[in-house]
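Title: Comparing notes on inverse folding

I've been comparing how different people in this forum approach sequence design from structure. To keep things fair, I'm posting one structure and asking everyone to reply with a full sequence. Here's the target:
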């Protein structure tokens, strides 16, 4: 691969105001939600069809929502008063089409997912639904019948997927927060490729009711933002018990002193950058910052990678076939060929395959539990390299597997994770570190990610 061709040609993310800044501007009278939201819709319209949004609220509907909030006593004190947000188009919102980037699959939602209801109840304003790899199957962002999105670091670079539009909506400054999903890295790879922050909570802390599942036993609602503070603000509002979600569980709050956190780092020689020396050097610089700030200890990487190999080379793809197999049989021409190939492969697994993989995963979970008994979090690259759109289209399966090298195992092993920007490689492409913690260590990974984010001016 000629990495010399992968040169970032644009400035990277252009973040809009944070939630805190928006709320202060509203309180001071410097602006108002209707002005902010009208400007967002105008900016999106001026950019044209760039693959970020699948459907948008109309200006009259947004203004009506702003007027409703303004007329509601006490609404201005709501934690997300007037805060615009985007929603991945695999999550139901009453009155909106849910497409999963497949027009033949689209249906009009009659209920709103609890995660979206929580945001609306907190005063937020929905701008629209964002693009994704079809059926949330992919990590690259090219698997869509809509315009293919591109990274904010250059028009030739992929956006990442499947939550491509959610990451770009934040990176382009359209919204400070976007709701996404994560099954194999979909809520971490796109933020990494667009210089923003992606948070995959522990499975079940945010209800998945109203989400069209990709792999029901692994799916997580994820959050994407420009700052960890914004992630924490929204997470506090949407992490809630929901008896309708059989995987739902209670959040375990923990006060964290970053000075006492022990960070696990695999030996640099065990990390894979797929021949991309610039990305390897960028991550090495980031590791130096981690070592400077935290108590760092070596940890093995192989058990995590072994678990990751089970995802697409094992029977979990059968979950996608269970969800979409009938639709695929009835609409063979309505699904992108690469998606049809992946989903169709799920029909070939037996119950024996399922149990064999579950036994192996249980063994690996035991090993990983022992590793986390020695450290609080583990830090890895979020991605080892990236690609151009043409490179992915030329080899869609292999490139996608490379993108998930460090993310595929997260949901299988029941981990939580934050992908946080870590400067740029020498050629201008984004470097991202992923902070991983065991289940229910969400407050720890967020605090550690925030601490690191405050030190990235050294990179």
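Reply #1:
Here's my take.
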């Amino acid at each position: 691969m000629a990495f010399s061709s992968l040169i970032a040609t644009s400035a990277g993310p252009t973040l809009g105001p944070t939630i805190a800044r928006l709320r202060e501007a509203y309180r001071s009278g410097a602006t108002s939600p209707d002005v902010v939201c009208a400007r967002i819709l105008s900016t999106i319209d001026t950019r044209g069809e760039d693959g970020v949004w699948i459907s948008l609220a109309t200006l009259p509907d947004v203004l009506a929502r702003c007027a409703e909030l303004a007329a509601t006593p006490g609404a201005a004190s709501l934690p997300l008063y007037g805060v615009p947000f985007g929603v991945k188009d695999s999550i139901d919102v009453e009155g909106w089409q849910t497409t999963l980037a497949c027009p033949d699959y689209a249906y009009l939602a009659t209920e709103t997912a609890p995660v979206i209801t929580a945001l609306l109840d907190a005063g937020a304003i929905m701008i629209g639904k964002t693009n994704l790899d079809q059926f949330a199957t992919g990590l690259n962002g090219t698997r869509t019948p809509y315009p293919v999105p591109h990274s904010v670091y250059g028009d030739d670079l992929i956006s990442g997927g499947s939550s491509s539009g959610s990451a770009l909506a934040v990176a382009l400054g359209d919204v400070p927060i976007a709701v996404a999903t994560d099954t194999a890295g979909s809520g971490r790879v796109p933020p990494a490729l667009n210089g923003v922050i992606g948070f995959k909570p522990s499975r079940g802390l945010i209800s998945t009711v109203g989400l069209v599942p990709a792999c029901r036993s692994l799916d997580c609602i994820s959050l994407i933002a420009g700052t960890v503070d914004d992630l924490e603000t929204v997470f506090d509002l949407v992490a809630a018990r929901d008896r309708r979600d059989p995987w739902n569980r209670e959040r375990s709050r923990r006060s964290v002193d970053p000075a006492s956190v022990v960070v696990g780092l695999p030996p640099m020689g065990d990390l894979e950058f797929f021949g991309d020396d610039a990305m390897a050097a960028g991550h090495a610089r980031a590791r130096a910052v981690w070592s400077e700030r935290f108590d760092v200890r070596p940890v093995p990487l192989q058990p995590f990678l072994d678990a990751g190999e089970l995802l697409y080379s094992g029977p979990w793809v059968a979950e996608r076939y269970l969800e979409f197999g009938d639709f695929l049989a009835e609409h063979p021409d309505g699904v992108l060929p690469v998606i049809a190939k992946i989903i169709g492969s799920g029909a070939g697994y037996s119950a024996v395959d399922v149990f064999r993989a579950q036994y192996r995963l249980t063994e690996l979970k035991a090993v990983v539990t022992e590793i986390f008994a020695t450290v609080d979090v583990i830090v890895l690259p979020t991605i080892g390299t990236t690609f151009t759109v043409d490179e992915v289209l030329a080899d869609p399966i292999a490139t996608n597997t490379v993108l998930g090298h460090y993310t595929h195992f997260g949901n299988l092993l029941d981990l939580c994770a934050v992908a946080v920007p870590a400067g740029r490689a020498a050629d201008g492409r984004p470097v991202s570190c992923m902070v991983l913690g065991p289940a229910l260590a969400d407050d720890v990974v967020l605090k550690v990610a925030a601490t690191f984010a405050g030190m990235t001016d050294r990179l």
